[in-house]
Amino acid sequence: MSFTETLGLIMLVGMVAVIFIGFPISFTLLFLALIFGGLGLGWEQTFNLAYLQIWGTMKDEIFPAVPLFIFMGYMTEQAGLMERLFGALRSLLASVRGSLYLAVILTATIFAMATGIVGAAVTVLGVMAAPMMIKAGYDARLSSGAIAAGGTLGILIPPSVMLVVMGPTMGVPVNLLYSAAFGPGFLLAGCYVAYTLTRSFINPKLGPPMTMEERRSAHDQMTTEKVGAPVVGLGLVCLVAITYLLLDWMLGRADAPRLRVSIGPSGVSAVALVLALLTTFPYVRSAYFRAIVLGIAPLSALIGFTLGTIVGGLATPTEAASCGAFGAALLALLYGRLSMRSIINAGTNTMVTSAMVLFLAVASTVFGAVFTKLGSANLITNSLLAIPLGDGWKLALIMFIFFVLGWPFEWPVIILVFMPIVLPVVEKLQFGLNKLDLLLWFGALTAVNIQTAFLSPPVAMSAYYLRNVVPQWSLATIYKGMADYMVIQVFVLILLLLFPQIALWPPSLLR
User: Fold this and answer.
1) Which among 452, 488, 509, 465 has a CA at the least distance from the CA of 187?
2) Interatomic CA distance for residues 264 and 134, integer angstroms
3) Checking phi first, is residue 248 left (phi over 0); if not, alpha (psi -120 to 50) or beta?
4) How many CA atoms lie within 13 A of 147 on its CB side?
5) What is the pLDDT of residues 401-433, one digit of tens each?
6) What is the pLDDT of residue 264?
């Protein structure tokens, strides 16, 4: 082992030790990279390397999507779209045992596709759902776990900011990485739903259905709300468009006649269009149906347009994110929630979150470059390859290492520092997959693994987000609630390890 390789390993151990003490991660990474790089490579080469890495990171065409997606998420929060969505789902599922658990997880799943911000999702869900759960006599442990676990789905389900950063690091297209994350994300949400409903049906006291008085109150509140004509018109357009697309897809899958009519360069299915237009009658006649549609359809349309253009390869993540940010602001305007205060709040939060993510990205990139230049990255890679284990066990070992690293480190450090170290190892593993599929599978595994870190003590940021807005629940109760969902996380991670097609099936449809 050479002097520079030893220096790099000392730098890595020093980073872990200093961060555990409590120093800010970004400054720690930059300081250690410059000091140890100067000692091992020379000061001029270190500063040149840092300059090139910073310049290269800022020139990356993918990174402008980060603040745009973050702004989209904060603006949808300011517009009150999450509250409307939760209210609509809560009313629809009122008669089901554990309906509030189900409404929380479904709201979190849908809202995760509008924002990749875990803190915002957990906080808003806590403010909205926790008081209702406490009043309805729901189990505090199961309730806190549902909110915390549901809120963390934003780091996994597209348009996750983490996946935007992960794509260039791994050298895979972001649209394919997005599609690979849908399977594990929806599977995880489905497991959450199955767990809470099973517990509620076995023990009805854990999640009683809404009483008739609560249902009437929710119905009256939804049907008496006054909304402007632009919102009503927008809801109708979104309802018809979403219904048409779903029916057209279903007819195509069933090989049923669609009676396509040519309109310009494209065609329209007459059967699907007529059936979609029929939804206008209940929309116009029923105030309750209209309220449900206004709570679900506009946000779903925004998500579908933003993600659909990325996954379909019609737009780059940056282009789609800019359209999504504009669409979120437009929805806020139509719903009457776009004020100077909401714009300032969304803009300020976007700047703070974006600065944290991008500063971490820059610091991690500089640290990783110096670490690699010292030769320590190759040393670790060769050591991992030399371990006398099968390929499956090597992958499991990497996942375990990432799981442990998720406790003290933010995800940018894992993605930008540690992932490049293990990528050469992963690329040499033999699982009967081509290189692109192997990397997409590994990316999905890593995303699920890192999401688990948000629920694992001692850091478990979701617990602190929730505790700040729901002081009635102790931190111990929240930790116990999250532990149940941690088991589900590990179960899904094992399933994904055993069945790669969970992640690889959606990308295969796009190629």
Assistant:
1) 488
2) 56
3) alpha
4) 38
5) 888 887 777 777 788 778 888 888 888 888 888
6) 57
Q: Is the peptide bond before 282 cis (omega within 30 degrees of 0)?
A: no
Q: Which amino acid is at 100?
A: L
Q: Give pLDDT tens digits for 178-232.
A: 889 988 999 999 999 999 989 988 888 888 877 777 777 777 777 766 777 788 8
Q: Alpha-carbon distance 455 to 155, whole Å? A: 12
- Using CA of residue 426, residue 428, residue 429, residue 433, what is the dihedral sign? positive
Start-to-end Cα distance in the chain: 45
Q: What is the C-alpha separation between 505 and 202, in angstroms, rounded?
A: 34
Kindly give the pairing relationship between strand 266-269 and strand 260-263: antiparallel
The one-letter amino acid at 320: A
Place of tokens 């973050």: 70
Helices (H), 93-209: 99-112, 118-136, 140-151, 161-170, 174-202
H or E stretch at 261:
strand 260-263
Between CA 111 and CA 117 the distance in angstroms is 10
The average confidence (pLDDT) of the chain is 83
Min mean pLDDT across 83-97, 213-227, 323-337, 410-424 is at 213-227
Residue 461 has pLDDT above 90, yes or no: no
Helix/strand/coil for 267: strand
pTM of the model: 0.83
Q: Which of 444, 361, 329 is nearest to 63 (CA)?
A: 361
Candidates 124, 179, 469; CA nearest to 309 is: 179
* Cβ–Cβ < 8 Å for 505, 176: no
Lowest mean per-residue pLDDT among 140-149, 402-411, 451-460: 451-460
Q: Find the range with the poorest average confidence among 38-47, 219-228, 395-404.
A: 219-228
Q: Report the distance separating Cα 126 and Cα 132, nearest Å.
A: 10
DSSP three-state, residue 209: coil
Number of residues that this document lists for the chain: 511
Let me know: does 391 contact 100? Beta carbons within 8 Å. no
Extract the runs of DSSP E, i.e. beta strands, from 26-140: none
User: What's the rounded Cα separation, in Å, for the pair 333 and 421?
Assistant: 46
Determine which of 65-74, 76-85, 469-478 has the lowest per-residue pLDDT on average. 76-85
Residue 159, phi then psi, degrees to nearest 5? -90, 70
Distances (CA, A) of 146 to 109, 178, 192, 466: 12, 24, 8, 11
Contacts 24+ apart (CB under 8 A), 403-409: 403/449, 403/452, 403/453, 403/456, 406/449, 406/450, 406/452, 406/453, 406/456, 407/453, 407/456, 407/457, 407/458, 407/459, 408/16, 408/19, 408/20, 408/459, 409/19, 409/25
Distance separating alpha carbons of residues 324 and 295, to the nearest angstrom? 18
